Amino acid sequence: MIHTVEDNADAIFTWRYDKGERPRLDKLYEKAKTSQWNGQTDLDWSIDVDPYKTLAPADPLEVQYFAENPQSPLHKLNEDEWADLGVESMNWSLSQFMHGEQGALLCTAKIVETVPWIDAKYYAATQVMDEARHVEVFAQYLDQKLD
């Protein structure tokens, strides 16, 4: 599924390619180039994940008070169903983080497009890569570990 959001921001090209006009940005850019991590090789994807072990034992959703109302659909849930609800809620929350990271990916890409200085474009591009890794890792974790 694709959702389009209209964006009327200008793309700013620069004809000045001199590095170092903004030394702090240049320093961050150089540091970012040597400090990249790879979600495929730097994380141990062979580790099994049991989402039920991560739940808080008493009330994973902090909605136990709804179960006290006999009219609530939560009123009839047994312990296993509560755990299932907690896991599904956690999966939903993590998927929301993943979508948020995609939003950050789009925003950082827009920074590259709209800043006027080459130093800022270089550094912002490292942020784009970082956000791409976040989206990739969240997607893989949700698909492989929590599916």
UniProtKB/TrEMBL annotation:
Q: Which GO terms describe its molecular function?
A: oxidoreductase activity
Would you indicate the residue range of the signal peptide?
none
Q: Which Gene3D superfamilies match?
A: Ribonucleotide Reductase, subunit A
Quote the SUPFAM superfamilies the UniProt record gives.
Answer: Ferritin-like
Report the protein name in the record: Ferritin-like domain-containing protein
Q: Which organism is it from?
A: marine metagenome
